[in-house]
Amino acid sequence: MTVAERLAELGLALPPVVPPVAAYVPAVRSGDLVFTSGQLPMVDGELPATGKVGAQVTPEQAKELARTCALNGLAAIDALVGLDAVVQVVKVVGFVASTPDFTGQPGVVNGASELLGDVFPGDAGRHARSAVGVAALPLDAPVEVELVVALDPARVRA
User: What pTM was computed for the model?
Assistant: First the structure.
């Protein structure tokens, strides 16, 4: 089954790649790895929510936003090399703009991790991860997610 077929089975479609909001590119390949830039939960060019988790944004909303971040990261990877070249999600880094007393960052970033596990079942979706609370993120986004994936060079889309 291709990754596109798996996404369709999950009722998901890749969004357009989110254009950079500063001086960077959405994803870079180095050898057999692809590193995405931090992906915000943009939907149709807009943030569906802004503010801090634990104040303006609920943990449940933030978890869904982290899922959107991961989907945006997959779109960036697909545009660069094609998702069928991915053999392993290596690392996920999630940043959660949260109030000082909020300690549920791991649960928020689970939105990204669970999506990746659904898209890449088994060992391919298992990954190392960091979930970090921060004071603020670009555009007042509640969540930002970076991905690192390993590739099968023979399956990279030219």
Answer: 0.97
